[in-house]
Amino acid sequence: MVNSMTGFAARSGQSGDYAWSWDLRSLNGRGLDLRLRVPDWVEGLEAALRARVSKAVKRGSLTIGLRLAREAPEGAISIDPGGLDAAIQALASLAHRAEAAGLPLSPASAAELLAMRGVQVQGGQTEDTDALRATLLEDFEAALAAFLEMRAAEGAALEQVLSGQIDRIEALGVQATACLGDRADKAAQSLRAALARVLDNADGADEARVAQELAMLAVKADVTEELDRLSAHVVAARDLLAEQVPIGRKLEFLTQEFNREANTLCSKSQDVALTRIGLDLKAVIDQMREQVQNVE
Length: 296
What we know:
Elements (H helix, E strand, L loop, with lengths): L6 E9 L2 E10 L4 E6 L7 H12 L3 E11 L7 E2 L1 H20 L9 H5 L5 E2 L8 H72 L5 H14 L3 H19 L5 H21 L3 H21 L4
Parallel strand pairs: 3-4
Antiparallel strand pairs: 1-2, 2-4, 5-6
Helix pairs in contact: 1-4, 4-5, 4-6, 4-8, 6-7, 7-8
């Protein structure tokens, strides 16, 4: 099973006096880079979100944003002047620093200002956020499910592309194996001709020793092992695609192994047809490597 590291989901909700909207989006990453932009006055919310996301997502640069606002019922909530002043000063300081850095911020709405911690007072005390946190976490599960569903859908399409590339690698390996018979005959003729030239132009040369050296060169030029390993890598790649766990890192390693065999095949080929196959292999493997960068 293949999951893509890229994905997006958005969801809005409302409960009581509160309204909110979730925004989840992710890009490729070496590991799990989780960035949260959530109100810090809802105690325990960020830690709970991190725990839930870490169980469901293993790789990717993931950003989660939550916009939370409250409309105060008439006569139900009063304002803490000190808390309001502190919130206004904090927003002013933030806007000043952002503007100095060339990052102007949009002004906060009255509803967003009221939602800041310490601004509203209910019953003479700052309200408890436990119930709000539980409601937000319950709603987040639906947003996370939609996000994971999108990643899975993109992963299914990606799996089809990777399967086609693996099939192409296998077909090129079969073609390379078919070339070995003609290549062996040509190599034998070349070695016999080389042996004859050496013996004709070197007085006192040890014929057995020269033949032995040429035979060693022939062994070094043999690509049977490379093609066998290539076939084994094809089997391993298909097995990975069938696994139900994140496979991105393993596929990255496997593409390196594919590329190593293709490079060796080209360097040893000494045959036009085999060299062409090796170059085609390198092209397909490079395409596969680019696609694998998207796999979780």
